[in-house]
Amino acid sequence: MPVTTICGGYDTDNATVLLFCASSSLGGRGISEDRILAIIGVGLIGGSIGLAAKSKGLFAEVRGTTRRRQTLDAALAAGAIDTPCLSPAEAARGADMVVVATSVATIPRFVLECAAAARENALITDVGSVKGVIDAAVRPNMPSGRIFIGSHPMAGSEKTSVLHARPDLLAGATCIITPAEGQDAHADALSAFWQDLSMNVFRMTPAEHDWVVAAVSHMPHLTAAAIMAAIPDAALPFGASGLRDTTRVAEGDACLWREIVLANHKEIIDAIGRLEIEIDTLKGLVLRGDTSGLEDYLRTASQRRKKRFDGGLS
């Protein structure tokens, strides 16, 4: 699926939902001194959002809650939150923005639960790495007077804990938002929030988003896992920096990635099919001893990577 509508401008600890007031006042005024941010599930992304918002002085108070008291204590100690709360409702009550960080499978339930508790004209977004299934589950069930727009800040690491959260984790990274028709004003407000966290914002449909991330994130993750599975035990101890760098993401949380893969399975299967074609092409070049063809193939891959990543990741 070619992307046609991109316009310029990710846990219990990995997927985050943001809920905030998106009335005309949000877009028309600066961050007021009494604004409250609540983070539900303070993990890598949620914790980094809290740290970034605090470092920029965007909110007077950052609240947080999570399933494990130990994690909540760690978030408080790390400075990701100001106030620990024992339940999502307690944290969200009266907040201008609520961040609910849950797995992809539970995002719709928490979006709707938070929307029911939100103030009038609230805007809700998630930072899960799949958009189609979430959008389809949430939009028909949103309470009246609340707005849902999906988001995916494409930043993070194979680590998931708030202990790895950083205030600059999102800086310079891409964030995709997926507004529906007629949501331009709310999408502008949402874009402004992510831009305040130094992100580069693009707009797509949920289907376009899922096609893109299957190609650049989900399929590469599964490829890294397959590489690790294909290496004989006797050879593995000799793997060095090349293997480490190629397969870093294979260290990611298996439960989290199981949910992501199943939620975006159609696009991932298509992406794997394209990879299989390339593997067959490479295999043919090697079998034929096609020196020039193999060199051209590797040079093209090198050039494509340099074009994307030279000068830094964004």
Features:
single chain; 314 residues; alpha/beta; Rossmann fold; 6-phosphogluconate dehydrogenase C-terminal fold; 2 domains; seven-stranded mixed sheet; three-stranded mixed sheet; 14% strand
Description:
The protein has 314 residues and is of the alpha/beta class. The chain folds into 2 domains: 16-204, 3-Layer(aba) Sandwich (Rossmann fold); 210-309, 6-phosphogluconate dehydrogenase C-terminal fold (Orthogonal Bundle). The protein has 12 helices and 10 strands. The chain has a 7-stranded mixed beta sheet with strand order 4-3-2-5-1-6-7, sandwiched between helices. A 3-stranded mixed beta sheet has the order 8-9-10, with helices on one face. α6 links the parallel β6 and β7. The longest helix has 25 residues, at 206-230.
In short:
Helix content is 47%, strand content 14%. By secondary structure, the chain is of the alpha/beta class.
Q: Which helices and strands appear, and what pairs or packs with what?
A:
Blueprint (H helix, E strand, L loop, with lengths): L15 E6 L2 H5 L7 E5 L3 H12 L5 E5 L3 H10 L4 E2 L3 H5 L4 E5 L5 H11 L4 E5 L5 H7 L8 E2 L1 E5 L19 E5 L5 H13 L3 E4 L2 H25 L10 H6 L7 H10 L1 H24 L2 H19 L5
Helix pairs in contact: 5-6, 8-11
